[in-house]
Amino acid sequence: MILNKDTAKKTAELLLQVKAIKLSPNEPFTWASGWKSPIYCDNRVTLSYPPVRNFLKEKIAKLVEEKYGKPDVIAGVATGAIAIGVLVAQELGVPFVYVRPEPKKHGRKNQIEGFLESGQNVVVVEDLISTGKSSLNAIKALKEANATVKGMVAIFSYGFSIASEAFKDFNLDFTTLSNYEELLEQALDSNYINEKELITLESWRLNPSEWNQ
């Protein structure tokens, strides 16, 4: 689910504006997974634009407090959500940790970096929810460290059903500032795409792993 319609549209507008999200239905991108995609999202780009990163920081912090109350700790998912997670933790005045995809192979072999006590309430911050695999991997690590994971907040989601089902199976709540549906609506309203391109972009989301031109 999204925070609210106005925030979703404004977030989508800003992500398109700074090219954190690029739409290219006629010349698709190739993801690391091998999927062909008419969209590419790298929300780390927002960090280079102070007004945009401040907007995201304030909206996520407000959402965290409204939904979960003030947590003991904010946890960012490495690497994309480390910076925005720090900003949110700073805004809320709470500690921050981040979660690696897997434990380090050397030193203390940490998967969670930072100080986390058993039983602390944690809200996870993510930059992008795709299939949900990396997000849920981080949540699993936090639960294994005996943290109480209250939920997850992300900047953007593609809205894949595979992610929704995975979170449901994990019995975990997540909210995003914006999502693919709101993005397409905003892109059409601002003439970033036309009606024909909209059809192509909508068809991709229905079957992304097998979609092609």
From TrEMBL:
EC number(s) from the headed UniProt entry: 2.4.2.10
Residues noted as binding orotate in the record, renumbered to the chain: S130
InterPro entries from the UniProt entry: OPRT, Or_phspho_trans_dom, PRTase-like, PRTase_dom
Needed co-factor(s): Mg(2+)
Pfam families xrefs: Pribosyltran (PF00156)
Residue ranges of domain Phosphoribosyltransferase in the record: 57-154
Residues at which 5-phospho-alpha-D-ribose 1-diphosphate binds: R100, K104, H106, E126, D127, L128, I129, S130, T131, G132, K133, S134
HAMAP family xrefs: PyrE
Name listed for the protein in its UniProt record: Orotate phosphoribosyltransferase
Originating organism: Tenacibaculum skagerrakense
UniProt gene name: pyrE
